[in-house]
Amino acid sequence: ALYTGGVKCWGWGTSGQLGNNTITSSSTPVDVQGLPAGTTTALTGGYRHTCAIAADGSARCWGRNTEGQLGNSTNTSSRVAVTPPRLSSGITAIVAGGAHTCVVQTGTVKCFGLNSAGQLGNNTTINSNTPVTATGLTGIAQVAAGGSHTCARTTTGKPLVASDPHLMLSAPTPHFPMHLACPDLDIDSLGERRLG
């Protein structure tokens, strides 16, 4: 939960996803440590990791990192918020998938973590514990993620999808963003898909 001055998390904490420097679950809200002073502008949760856009415009992530989903050049989980390299400013959107994370920075999408289905959008299926740029995307306003796929919306409203075997359109799923004919698809600010 976002509140003036910080972020609070509660629930299952065995991977450090509550961000309070423990691996203990909590039935009451606890403060996330490692965020700079000021109001955090966005918050997103994956399977066992959590990420935010801090007041300084940086991406911050904490929790499980076995697939590199914290993006901080390691595969070591963190009990407090850490900043991925090259994502210390200019972040306008962030989303956590099952075990991957993507951000929008100056209109491009950068992703890190699990890439078994090509969900990082960089034309590979190799995991990355540092941010990689999704292929061929510019002018991106929003990003959304599921367990093994990622979607983005351009500033003109055009939806794009990076791979997921369950989203196949009668052809092998590519491992890079592709244009789909989905004029009624809208990705709202919570990263959920709505059909118009």
Structure description:
There is one protein chain. The protein is mostly beta strands. About 0% of the residues lie in helices and about 40% in strands. It is built from no helices and 17 strands. A four-stranded antiparallel beta sheet has the order 4-5-6-7, with no helix packed on it. It has a four-stranded antiparallel beta sheet with strand order 8-9-10-11, with no helix packed on it. A four-stranded antiparallel beta sheet has the order 12-13-14-15, with no helix packed on it.
Provide a concise account of the structure shown:
The protein is built from no helices and 17 strands.
Q: Keyphrases for this structure?
A:
disordered C terminus, 17 strands, 4-stranded antiparallel sheet, mainly beta, single chain
Shape: globular
What structural class should be given to the helix and strand makeup?
A: mainly beta
Strand content: 35-45%
Strand order of the largest sheet: 4-5-6-7
Count of beta strands: 17
Helix content: under 10%
Poorly predicted runs? 163-196
Q: Enumerate how many helices there are, as a single number.
A: 0
The biggest beta sheet reads: 4 strands, antiparallel
Whole-Å distance between the termini?
A: 28 Å
Radius of gyration: 16 Å
N-to-C order of helices and strands: EEEEEEEEEEEEEEEEE
* Multimerization state: single chain
